[in-house]
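I hope you will forgive my troubling you with a question about protein structure. The matter concerns a single protein, recorded as an amino acid sequence and a row of backbone structure tokens. Please examine both parts with care and let me know of anything in them that strikes you as inconsistent. Here, with my thanks, is the record as I have it:
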Amino acid sequence: MAGKLIDKVAIVTGASSGIGEATALALASVGATVVIAARRSDRLQALEARITGTGGKALSITADVSDEVQVEALVNQTHAKFGRVDILINNAGVMLLGLIDGADTEDWRRMINLNVLGLMYATHKVLPLMKAQGAGHIVNISSVAGRVANAGSGVYNASKWAVGAFSEALRKEVYQNNIRVTIIEPGLVATELPQHITDSAAKEQAKNFYGSVKNLLSEDIANAIVYAVTQPPHVNVNEILIRPTEQER
């Protein structure tokens, strides 16, 4: 598979840790030039150095994708430097679990702004570029929570169901432009996501749930993404649902 993405330019959001970081490394390993975006500049710079230090190509751009202006700057800077955008990995997201009654509604805004609107902003900005190129691939990171709703995760569920609906509508709009759309739905993955939960009871419940099975690794999800984006042009892997073997729901 080495070299399958040579001459391809990929933007990866949420690249400072977890699935985004692993995906950037995996895409670079098969030849892609990766533009890595997140809010934590120090981590991005370290990842850029790690990729370029092993012969890969990378550019770090600090950006909060929940801010449409920053997303526009991210895509414009990528296009200005490399002349194209072939792959967009919409990975940035948060999982702020908790009951609906009594919730801190700022958590809701953070999830909708990042998980949904941020993904939409980035997609909206790259589409004209991909259409002009005559090809492109948009990969949206959802979750098992985009398929199965549970008490204590209602708004997170809503944000990920939105990703699924948006992705399928998008596919139907752009397939004739030779633009592929893939949705990735991971189960439990060992990342920072549970650490960001602000509700103490929900945080403890998540800790116990994650501790009950052998979690997927970020690299497992990155491998699924590489599989999807390295298929022949006539193959569009629309959806990948990937759970730990021990996870029931």
Q: What stands out?
A: The chain has seven helices and seven strands. The chain has a mean pLDDT of 97.
